[in-house]
Write a sequence for this structure.
């Protein structure tokens, strides 16, 4: 009698789990800023609206605005330009004249293609009792529209706090690289002073690292003339950091501009100066404050180290130069004086 064999059951192979790819973390703009920046993105959408120069008979914006999410995405109003004003706390202070002229010509030809972002100034109506509006993003377009002779322009209207306005201005300009280093540093300082933002908060808001924010804030310690050079683009942030480490920051700034030094050359010069710098003695500390002030004024003016030893009724004025180029520059400046 034959017995039938039971079919052997093959072991079930467990399918290897595919490794789960970690999604890269998205940059966080800051608490509540992501939604605000969506409005800024919309205000830069070139296909949103077009208001030709001839469109000066548009009706004023309705004052009672809905607050639904649909209205936040779709409502673009046309405002009289004379009821719009700039934000005095706008981080960006300077505009490239050539680019502004190009934008003016474009708007004169095609009209305004991008709405600006504004907030209503409910407590500051005009002489006729009509609401005025403050620019949050798009001041350059507003300036160009005025120069092009427009009377109305498209705008997104949002009710925003002072902090939201400043944060939007900082984030927008930093992300679009529209600020010079001094303007950027001043904007970060304003976030700290006016709204108590920590460096970590600011770093998250603009998508930068905390050390980056700290280094930018250090630029505000530069002498005023060095800041001017930085605003004008005659030196960059790398030069500025080298200047801050120099025993005589203003003299180094002048040297960088005069010799057109690279950042690496400026850093080398700082190391050389720090090696040869004489330590401050107790006698130096006791020197007359007026004498130190005159020395600093002359140093700032000539870009060279000045030493004044005053003994009634006369004294000795020493000017230290490092090269023949320095000497030639000094002679030129003295002849012009």
């Amino acid at each position: 009698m034959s017995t039938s064999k039971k079919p052997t059951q093959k072991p079930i192979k467990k399918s290897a789990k595919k490794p789960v790819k970690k999604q890269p973390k998205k940059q966080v703009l800051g608490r509540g800023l992501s939604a605000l920046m969506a409005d800024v993105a919309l205000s830069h959408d070139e296909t949103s609206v077009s208001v030709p120069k001839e469109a000066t008979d548009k009706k004023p914006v309705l004052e009672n605005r809905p607050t639904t999410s649909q209205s936040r995405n779709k409502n673009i109003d046309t405002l009289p330009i004379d009821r719009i004003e700039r934000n005095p706390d706008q981080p960006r202070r300077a505009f490239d004249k050539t680019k502004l002229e190009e934008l003016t010509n474009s708007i004169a030809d095609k009209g305004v293609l991008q709405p600006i972002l504004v907030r209503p100034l409910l407590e500051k109506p005009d002489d006729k009792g009509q609401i005025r509006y403050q620019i949050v993003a798009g001041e350059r377009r507003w300036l160009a529209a005025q120069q092009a002779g427009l009377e109305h322009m498209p705008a997104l209207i949002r009710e925003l706090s002072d902090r939201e306005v400043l944060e939007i201005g900082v984030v927008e300009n930093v992300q679009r690289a529209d600020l010079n280093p001094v303007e950027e540093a001043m904007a970060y300082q304003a976030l700290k002073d006016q709204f108590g933002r920590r460096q970590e908060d600011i770093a998250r808001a603009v998508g930068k690292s905390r050390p980056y924010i700290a280094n930018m804030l250090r630029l505000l310690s530069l002498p005023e003339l060095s800041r001017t050079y930085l605003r004008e683009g005659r030196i960059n942030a790398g030069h500025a950091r080298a200047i801050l480490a120099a025993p005589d920051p203003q003299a180094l700034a002048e040297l960088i501009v005069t010799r057109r030094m690279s950042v690496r050359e400026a850093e080398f010069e700082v190391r050389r100066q720090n090696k040869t710098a004489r330590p401050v003695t107790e006698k130096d500390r006791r020197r007359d404050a007026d004498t130190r002030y005159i020395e600093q004024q002359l140093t700032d003016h000539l870009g060279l180290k000045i030493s004044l030893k005053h003994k009634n009724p006369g004294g000795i004025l020493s000017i230290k130069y490092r090269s023949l180029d320095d000497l030639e520059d000094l002679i030129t400046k003295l002849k012009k004086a």
Observations:
- Confidence is low (pLDDT under 50) at residues 20-34, 45-73.
